[in-house]
Write a structure and sequence with these properties.
It contains 5 helices and 7 strands. The structure holds coenzyme A. The site of coenzyme A has 20 residues, from β4, α4 and α5.
Length: about 180
């Protein structure tokens, strides 16, 4: 059981740690930066590992979280979180989409997440997802769609452990609905 918060909001001042984190994923071109906001259909698409690149990324996340700014075409407003361990070390990313568009309903779902490769298998993603269900409840969602690749066994297990009910598979993705909770 953890008392420390697992999800925190993005913040300035962690540039050096961010560079190490991205390198742990294998570098900026990694396809596993799920929940970080990169590789989407708007800029910046990949991490630029400079202080300016860090600031630009934070600005992108802040803009997409700001309800007073209209969403980019094809995007929905989202909450962005960083996953921390009990010691406060940065171990991953989590995105909470506040609504679903047709593509998210089909495959993307409400929540995306990843844990840095060197820290997988410790239960951190499961804890982050549990906290994300509380965050989702706080913004008025009673249930969330969570999806994973058909062959992503760790992800499927943690979704099921967090109450996800398997609905069906679309385009190689398993789709689950999970009730949120306080
Ligand atoms: C999927 C991912 C987030 C899981 O993170 P994690 O912190 O290692 O997950 P957890 O430690 O909470 O483990 C989740 C479950 O998978 C199980 N698991 C972990 N590795 C496994 C493996 N190689 N094979 C089978 N089960 C495995 C764990 O035992 C756990 O199940 P349990 O709760 O029943 O014990 C991580 O692998 C990752 O970041 N992958 C790349 C990005 C990604 O795929 N994101 C998800 C998109 S849907």
């Amino acid at each position: 059981m953890s008392a420390a918060p697992v999800l925190v909001l993005p913040s300035a001042g962690r540039f050096a740690e961010w560079v190490q984190l991205i390198e742990d994923y294998g570098g900026p071109e990694s396809t596993e930066l799920v929940g970080s906001g990169f590789h989407g259909n708007r800029e910046p698409r990949v991490p630029v590992l400079t202080p300016d690149g860090y600031a630009t990324w934070l600005a992108m996340l802040a803009e997409e979280a700001d309800e007073s700014v209209p969403p980019h075409p094809g995007r929905v407003k989202s909450s962005w979180f960083w996953v921390l361990d009990d010691d406060g070390a940065w171990v991953g990313f989590l995105a909470l989409r506040r609504s679903l568009n047709p593509a998210l309903l089909e495959t993307g779902g409400h929540i995306g997440y990843s844990i840095r490769p060197s820290r997988r298998g410790e239960g951190l993603a499961g804890r982050a997802l549990a906290d994300a269900l509380v965050e989702a409840s706080a913004i008025g969602l009673e249930r969330v769609l969570i999806t994973c690749d058909e062959d992503n066994v760790p992800s499927a297990r943690m979704i099921e452990r967090n109450g996800g009910i398997y609905q069906d598979s679309h385009n190689g993705m398993r789709r689950y609905w999970a009730p949120t909770h306080r």
